[in-house]
C-alpha cells in the first residue's frame, strides 16, 4: 500500500515535478510561491507540464489499444448484439476511442448508415468524449482513484441509460434521411504490424495534442486565476456545496463552452480546492464535454430538432443527477 501510494504520488501526481517547479519559480523567477503571483506562476507551469506529459504517454497507450478497434471492426462488434447489451458495449467501446464530441459525429453517420440502432450509436457518442482512459488517469492524478473510478462508472451508466431510452422511444424517423442513404463502403480490415501500431499511436498523440493544447493552456490559466486570485468565500457564496442550485448553475455554465475534458480538469481542480462540491465540478466538466454548443450545432446537421432536444434533455438531467449524487456522497470519495 505504501509503495502504491509512493508510485501514485511520483508518477501521477508528480510530486517531483511540483518541487522542481517550486525551485524554478523561487530561484529563477525570484517569486514566493505563497504569494498570489508566485502561486499562479507555479500552478500554471506545474499543471501544464504535468498534463502534457501524462496526456502524451496515455494517448499513446490508449491509441495503441485503439488500433485494434478501427471503425469497421467496431461496427461489426456492435452489430452482433441487441438491446441493453449493445448499449453497454457501445458505451464501453467509446471509452477506448479518445475522440472529442465533434469528431464523433462522422462516426455517428457511419454507424447509423451501417444499420446500427441509433440508441447504441448515441451510447457511443456520449461515452467517447466523456469517459476515455486518458481522462481517467488524469482525474486520478488530480483528485484520487475513488473519484476517478466513480466518474467512469457514472459516465458509462449515463451513456447506457440515455442510449437505451432513445432506442425504446423509436426515434429513427428524426434522423436526417441522408444519414441512412449514405453509402457505406465495405473496407477490408488490414492487420497492422507492431511497427504500424506504434506509428499510429505516435500520430494520434501529435493530432490530439495539436487539437487540445490551446484548451489546456486556457483551462490551466483559468484554474490558476481561480486558485490564487478569487477569494474562497466568493466562490462558496455562488457554488458552495451547501447551495442547492450549484449543480444546476455549473451545468448551464458549461454548455456554451467548447473544450476537451483535459482543458476542464484544471478548472475543476481549482474549484474543488476553493470549497466547490466535487459533484458540482464534475457536472461542469461533463456538460462542457458532452453538451457543448458547437457539438450540438454539428449534431443538428444529422438529427432533427425533436431528437436533438430529447438527447440534450436526457443527458442534462443525467448530469444534474450525477452532480447531486456526488455532492451527497462526497465524504465517501475524498
From TrEMBL:
Q: Where are the transmembrane segments?
A: 43-65, 86-109, 121-142, 149-171, 212-230, 242-259, 271-295, 307-326
InterPro entries, per database record: DUF318, UPF0718_permease
**What are its GO cellular component terms?**
plasma membrane
Task: Give the record's membrane topology.
Answer: Multi-pass membrane protein
Q: What UniProt keywords apply to this chain's record, in alphabetical order?
A: Cell membrane, Membrane, Transmembrane, Transmembrane helix
- Cellular localization per UniProt: Cell membrane
Origin superkingdom: Bacteria
Q: Which PANTHER family match?
A: PERMEASE RV2963-RELATED
Q: Which family does it belong to?
A: Belongs to the UPF0718 family.
Report the protein name in the record.
Answer: Putative two-component membrane permease complex subunit
Amino acid at each position: 500500500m505504501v509503495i502504491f501510494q509512493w508510485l501514485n504520488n511520483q508518477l501521477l501526481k508528480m510530486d517531483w515535478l511540483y518541487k522542481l517547479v517550486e525551485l524554478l519559480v523561487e530561484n529563477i523567477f525570484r517569486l514566493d510561491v505563497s504569494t498570489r503571483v508566485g502561486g499562479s506562476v507555479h500552478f500554471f507551469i506545474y499543471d501544464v507540464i504535468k498534463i502534457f506529459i501524462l496526456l502524451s504517454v496515455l494517448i499513446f497507450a490508449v491509441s495503441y489499444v485503439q488500433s485494434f478497434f478501427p471503425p469497421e471492426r467496431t461496427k461489426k462488434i456492435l452489430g452482433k448484439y441487441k438491446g441493453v447489451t449493445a448499449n453497454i458495449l457501445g458505451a464501453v467501446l467509446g471509452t477506448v476511442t479518445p475522440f472529442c464530441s465533434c469528431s464523433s459525429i462522422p462516426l455517428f453517420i457511419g454507424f447509423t448508415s451501417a444499420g446500427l440502432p441509433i440508441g447504441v450509436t448515441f451510447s457511443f457518442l456520449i461515452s467517447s468524449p466523456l469517459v476515455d482512459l486518458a481522462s481517467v488517469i488524469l482525474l486520478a492524478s488530480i483528485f484520487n482513484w475513488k473519484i476517478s473510478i466513480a466518474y467512469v462508472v457514472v459516465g458509462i451508466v449515463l451513456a447506457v441509460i440515455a442510449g437505451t431510452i432513445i432506442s425504446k422511444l423509436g426515434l429513427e424517423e428524426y434522423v436526417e434521411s441522408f444519414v441512412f442513404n449514405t453509402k457505406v463502403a465495405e473496407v477490408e480490415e488490414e492487420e497492422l504490424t507492431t511497427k504500424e501500431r506504434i506509428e499510429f499511436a505516435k500520430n494520434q498523440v501529435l493530432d490530439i495534442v495539436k487539437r487540445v493544447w490551446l484548451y489546456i493552456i486556457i483551462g490551466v490559466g483559468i484554474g490558476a486565476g481561480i486558485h490564487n486570485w478569487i477569494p474562497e468565500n466568493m466562490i462558496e457564496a455562488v457554488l458552495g456545496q451547501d447551495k442547492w442550485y450549484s449543480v444546476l448553475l455549473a451545468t448551464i455554465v458549461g454548455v456554451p463552452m467548447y473544450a476537451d475534458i483535459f482543458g476542464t480538469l484544471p478548472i475543476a481542480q481549482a474549484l474543488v480546492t476553493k470549497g466547490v462540491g466535487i459533484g458540482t465540478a464534475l457536472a461542469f466538466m461533463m456538460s462542457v464535454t458532452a453538451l457543448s454548443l458547437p457539438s450540438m450545432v454539428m449534431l443538428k446537421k444529422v438529427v432533427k430538432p425533436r431528437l436533438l432536444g430529447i438527447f440534450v434533455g436526457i443527458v442534462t438531467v443525467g448530469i444534474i443527477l450525477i452532480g447531486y449524487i456526488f455532492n451527497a456522497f462526497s465524504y465517501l470519495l475524498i
